[in-house]
Design goal:
The complex is a heterodimer of chains A (337) and B (258). Chain A is mostly helical. Helix content of chain A is 74%, strand content 0%. Helices cover 32% and strands 28% of the residues of chain B. The chains are: A mainly alpha (337), B alpha/beta (258).
């Protein structure tokens, strides 16, 4: 039995404590955003960043910040928040700390949907729609197959996720093989997609805001759900309705993130888990904190991805996977059940 | 609120089954304030399923009323204020403090955006104290022993402050002193006007505590009544699959395996 626990997680949960933690996290995210805007080949000083944010783009530095870095940074921020919030919701829904859009093959399902649409030469809205449908279908399959309580659930969930993810990988390869050359470029772009490819940061942030606002009223019911479906029902929670709402919400958030930045792994796994260790498992704090923490992590990762070995740019998914894989393995070792 | 005169739980011609197991056929049962019901039977006979059905958490056929109103007609939250259910295996996939685990019992009493008040925290603290866990509020539930975890689950049920308590094997993992303490506490709870039903395995502890017995024989056969009506070596032997001897010690009756 492991005794990982940090004193702050044991303090009584109070609205004031939640507010303080969230304000601190938000301040950290703002700091990361400022650093992301300043860092790069064209170094921008604080004055240039502030000018850019105020809309004064006469200087070249300010123009770079406003037109290149800001949209990319906001997209990374929004998508990281989406993935972490989706991961936190799925972990409660499946009552399993290993659930995450990437591990469960949901990103893979979205990729199959998007690539199928690209193969048939459909327009951008259809590609996004197909990615959403693929994400929903995969999540439904994994969710349906891993439900229930008992010692087999954990194994079954992971096996289902692994099988579905590798199946999606095979289908992606098949689609790439079958597709004509003119579609191939778009497909690879989608698969390797990074925050630089996201063209609608405002929409991503809007979806994130809607997601947080939709999840918060359910937070205390989710606390109960994390302790057992029947137990939650005995305490007056309509678990069937709650499950459907959370399932749809997590799928939509994942799909929105995946269609914007492509396959970015493990943000949804690592962020809620680390925050849970620091802050405890009360969803009233964990859900908004995950949204902020995930956004901050992906923003930092993306900034590192485009500056560490500049002018070469790493796909941000590579960085998150390099962080995520060891954390995942450590988690798996800690939960032998 | 429940009408004081009506039983807290009333079952008539109730059929409950799960998979291939028929727990009860045409069960008639009344649980009035002050009643202490022990449910006895062999493994796999359907005791837990029956208890879940009585809590409205498992489908059943027949008439089942709580406080004079059909169980299925109760809004979930109002029902959760009236009847509490203790699951057999508390499960903690995530770390949480003991205090948080007990405060979940206050959920039915809170509005959607309401936070646990100091009153709720006092109720949780006194429930923990009642289970002998006064210093445990800041501990992580995942680091507790089986018996301690079981007492945390019972404390969460007490914090729910229902009038009808349905407990599935509450004495699991508890040492003898803990078992007696839990039984004595629920004797007091029943004396305070609640009705308590629990699945038990030890006949002698059941007889020490219960006012009424419900015995499941398997295949849907059952027998219910006051302890004086039901308790006999022949019936217990039949229900539990092993012959028993009755030993008399003054007023008390004990049963030992033959």
């Amino acid at each position: 039995m492991s005794a990982v626990s940090i004193p702050i997680a044991r303090l009584p949960m109070r609205p004031r404590r939640v507010l303080i933690v969230l304000v601190c996290l938000a301040a950290g995210v703002l700091l990361a955003l400022f650093a992301a805007l300043a860092a790069g080949e064209v170094a921008a000083g604080p004055a240039a960043v502030i000018n850019a944010l105020l809309g004064h783009t006469e200087q070249i530095e300010s123009a770079v910040v406003a037109q290149l870095r800001l949209p990319r940074a906001l997209a990374a921020l929004g998508c990281g928040g989406l993935l972490a919030l989706a991961g936190a919701l799925m972990q409660v829904l499946l009552r399993n700390p290993l659930a995450d859009p990437y591990v469960l093959g949901i990103s893979g399902g979205a990729a199959v949907g998007a690539l199928s649409a690209l193969l048939f030469g459909l327009a951008a809205p259809w590609v996004d729609g197909a990615a959403l449908a693929g994400a929903l279908a995969t999540m439904f399959a994994v969710f349906a197959l891993s439900r229930g309580s008992g010692s087999w659930t954990q194994t079954r969930l992971l096996l289902t996720g692994v099988v579905v993810a590798s199946g999606c990988g095979a289908v992606v390869s098949l689609l790439l093989t079958l597709s004509p050359d003119r579609a191939l470029r778009g497909m690879l772009f989608w698969l390797m997609g990074d925050a630089g490819a996201a063209d609608r940061p405002g929409l991503v942030l809007l979806v994130l805001a809607v997601g947080v606002l939709a999840a918060m009223p359910l937070a205390r019911e989710l606390n109960l759900l994390s302790r057992g479906e029947r137990h939650a029902r005995a305490l007056g929670v309509d678990t069937r309705r709650l499950g459907v709402v959370v399932f749809l919400l997590a799928s939509l958030l994942t799909a929105a993130a995946v269609t914007s930045v492509g396959s970015v792994g493990f943000v949804g796994l690592v962020v809620p888990h680390l925050l849970r260790l620091l802050l405890g498992n009360d969803q009233r704090l964990l859900l908004p904190a995950s949204a902020l923490g995930g956004g901050g992590l992906l923003l930092v990762a993306d900034t590192a991805a485009r500056t560490v070995i500049a002018p070469l740019q790493l796909p941000v998914g590579v960085l998150t996977a390099l962080i995520g894989v060891p954390v995942f393995l450590w988690l798996l070792a800690r939960h032998p059940r | 609120m429940a009408d004081a005169a009506s039983p807290l739980l009333c079952a008539r011609a109730l059929d409950v089954s799960v998979a291939q197991v028929r727990a009860v056929r045409r069960l008639d049962l009344d649980l009035a304030p002050g009643h202490r019901l022990a449910i006895l039977g062999r493994n796999g006979v359907g005791k837990s399923t029956l208890l879940a059905a009585l809590a409205g958490l498992h489908p059943s056929h027949g008439r089942l009323e709580c406080g004079g109103r059909a169980l299925s007609a109760w809004p979930a939250r109002a029902l959760a204020q009236l009847r509490g259910w203790l699951p057999q295996h508390p499960d903690d996939p995530f770390a949480s403090s003991v205090e948080e685990a007990v405060l979940v019992g206050r959920h039915p009493w809170l509005e959607r955006f309401e936070w646990e008040s100091e009153d709720d925290q006092r109720i949780a603290a006194s429930a923990l104290a009642a289970m002998g866990l006064a210093g445990f509020a800041r501990r992580n539930v995942q680091t507790l022993s089986g018996g301690e975890r079981q007492r945390v689950a019972i404390a969460a049920l007490l914090a729910q402050t229902p009038q009808l308590y349905l407990l599935d094997e509450p004495l699991t993992h508890l040492d003898l002193a803990g078992q007696i303490a839990v039984l004595d506490h629920f004797r007091g709870v029943a004396a305070g006007g609640a009705a308590v039903a629990m699945v038990l395995h030890d006949i002698n502890l059941a007889l020490r505590w219960a006012s009424h017995l419900l015995i499941l024989f398997g295949e849907g056969d059952w027998l219910a009544g006051s302890v004086a009506e039901v308790a006999s070596a022949e019936i217990f032997g039949r229900a539990l699959g092993h012959p028993l001897h009755a030993l008399h010690d003054g007023e008390r009756l004990y049963f030992v395996p033959a």
